[in-house]
Amino acid sequence: MTAKRLAIFSGLLMLPVLYVVFISLHVMTQGDTIERWLPKWDRLLLLVAILGLERLYTYRYAGSQRYVLTRDVISNIVNLYITGAVAAFILLPILSYIPEHYLGRKFFFASPDQLGPFWLQVPFLLVTVSFFRYWMHRWQHSNEFLWSLHSYHHRVTDLRATNAEVSNPIDFAFRNIVVFVALGVIGFNPFAALVAFSITNITAVFSHCGGDVRAGFLNYLFVTPEVHRWHHSAETPAGHKYSCNYGVEFSFWDVIFGTYHLPQKDGESVQPERIGHPGGLADEGNYLKILLEPIGLYRPWAKRGGPQPAE
Fold first, then answer.
1. Which of 85, 215, 298, 301 is the Cys-Cys partner for 293 at CB 3.0 to 4.6 Å?
2. Are 245 and 259 in contact (CB under 8 A)?
3. Is the pLDDT of residue 8 over 70?
4. What sign for the dihedral angle of Cα 84, 85, 91, 97?
């Protein structure tokens, strides 16, 4: 088998293998204490795995991201350990009040058996989460306020596993927390939710893999690095108004709604020449600015003695 064919074959297997490995780990560790002494251990392990793939599948157009590593570390800590907890604290009382007073709890807080068999709950959750995140992501590019929050995620100059979570916490919550909290309180089978949410999270992080991963026909189903690089292209592809490839987990939503873009040449996918903010803004390494500037608090904070904003 030639090196090219081996690379294509391994690329096709990569995402399915990640699914099997991490879902199996969850099955084996159910009821274990690992989550107590190392919260989000699965996301940390996934991050390590993707970093390993980046070293193994070297991308010839890769750019250094070491100069913003501190920002990446802070973003990962905040969005993995703080944003979800804060969003749930705000959303849960609202989600409890509405069904109790207006729906008689008919549809919320159901028992797992009332919502159908396990084999049906998993695909339902996958379709619901991915559909919501596709349209939320698309809205984050077309709405001025949401774009002011989301645009920092597009100021990275190369896709890396470490910058998958680089985002303003409000932006991150809209796209990654709201739908999970809403579905979580409905009452789905816990294991069905675990399998579905693991698949969505694995794909979302994998899409930022900085390695030269070739996924072939899977590009039409899943958001692979080949597909997601075009979403982060510094130049919006012709025929697309704001961006393309808005899917977070599955690219078939883009195929269905006409936002899919992955050009081919000589039987191989073509990658964008440059990754970055479509308006030409430089990568933002100051996490405090990412956190406060979109809501108008950075300059007032800076005037009180913090670091002055760069002109």
1. 298
2. yes
3. no
4. positive
**Measured between alpha carbons, how far is 297 from 289 in angstroms, rounded to an integer?**
9
For 152-169, what is each residue's pLDDT tens digit?
999 999 999 999 999 999
228 exposed, middle or buried (CB, 10 Å; 0-12, 13-18, 19+)?
A: buried
C-alpha–C-alpha distance, residues 7 and 1, integer Å: 10
Which is nearest to 40 in space by CA: 103, 89, 84?
84
- Interior CA angle at 252 toward 163 and 227, to 5°? 35
Q: What is the mean pLDDT of residues 185-194?
A: 82
Paired residues of 275 in beta bridges? 233
Given the DSSP bridges, would you call strands 264-265 and 268-269 parallel, antiparallel or unpaired? antiparallel
Crossing angle of helices 83-98/69-81, nearest 10°? 30
- Taking the C-alpha atoms of residue 188 and residue 176, their distance in angstroms, rounded to an integer, is 18
- Find the mean pLDDT for residues 180-203: 86
How many other C-beta atoms are found inside a 10 Å radius of the C-beta of residue 86?
14
Measure the CA–CA gap between 129 and 179, rounded to whole angstroms: 6
Q: Is 289 exposed, middle or buried (0-12, 13-18, 19+ CB in 10 A)?
A: buried
For residue 110, which of 14, 167, 184 has the smallest C-alpha distance?
184
